[in-house]
Amino acid sequence: MKTARKIAHQQKQPYYKWKRKIFAVLLMSLCFGFLLLIMQSQYNRITTLTSMHAQKPKIAFLFIARNRLPLDIVWDAFFQGGENRFSIYVHSRPRFLFNKATTKSNYFLNCQVNDSIQVDWGEASMIEAERILLRHALEDAYNQRFVFLSDSCIPLYNFNYIYDYIMSTSTSFIDSFADTKEGRYNPLMAPVIPVQNWRKGSQWVVLTRKHAEVVVNDNIVFPMFQWHCKRKSLPEFWRDQPFPADTSKEHNCIPDEHYVQTLLAQEGLEEEITRRSLTHSSWDLSSSKDRERRGWHPVTYKYSDATSMLLQSIKEIDNIYYETEHRREWCSRKGKPSACFLFARKFTRPAALRLLDTSALEL
């Protein structure tokens, strides 16, 4: 009987040994798998940190367009030099869609904001469109500069030059000066915006991320512009509005020429801006027979105007004089004299394509 039990016990021993071995193998496999997970997690973390370190800050190009972008081919050539260093956002009229039928550049596909509004010249809707573009662009943490451009703007230099120019300074570029001559300031704004903070300038600004956030978060100055800064009604618009009793008594204010400048003055941030625009416009004060309309819109460059001499004359501008402040702004970059402008407007499509075809634009 004892012999039988001994034999049975001996037969069970190999079974228990194999069971222990299988358990040990499984335990080792679990430990090894856990170790791999930890190593993978550390690798992903290091890869992410390396990627963040390698990713350069980006410039967000914010286009305000009526419908399509007629100069998309010019910008297509420009953006080819700057992969991973830029973002594009386009505000066009509601229900207009950028697709392969409406743009010849793949860079502008899937760049259109989905909450655009109807924009009317001389109305607060223009600055609301700017705020919409900024809200979208600020969602990308890598966007550190924000450049506003119209659908008639062209770049004057290649991407690398413009990127280095803009990123080499910690300031925003904002054309801003005291508005003491035209009487656009509405005294009804005084309780919120004192007249000493009233500024004028071009809407084509370049903002730092900090200043872009100031614009988006503003809920004090913007309502004042909606209520008290409106353009004077013009005869061509009277069919859509009640006929004014006395146009001479109407207040005249163009919101997009005052808003950002006044807001940053109001916030005490003028020491953080370079007070000039990087976008050139040519204002022909004698082009209209109507004295009130003179200077309302810049010159539009047509095909015959588009020459290398024109571009060179713009590039050679190295200072800007502000008459109301008796101030001359000398343009510099990295502490050295430089050209004032990186972009120019207003160019028709034939004019811009001629510049591109003749290699006048060195993109």
From TrEMBL:
Compartments (UniProt record): Membrane
InterPro entries: BC10-like, Glyco_trans_14
Transmembrane segment boundaries: 21-39
Predominant location: membrane
Pfam families recorded: Branch
Membrane topology of the entry: Single-pass type II membrane protein
Keywords, ordered alphabetically: Glycoprotein, Glycosyltransferase, Membrane, Transferase, Transmembrane, Transmembrane helix
PANTHER family the UniProt entry points to: CORE-2/I-BRANCHING BETA-1,6-N-ACETYLGLUCOSAMINYLTRANSFERASE FAMILY PROTEIN-RELATED, GLYCOSYLTRANSFERASE BC10
Protein name per its UniProtKB record: Glycosyltransferase BC10-like isoform X1
Organism in which the protein naturally occurs: Ziziphus jujuba (Chinese jujube)
Lineage, broadest ranks: Eukaryota, Viridiplantae, Streptophyta, Embryophyta, Tracheophyta
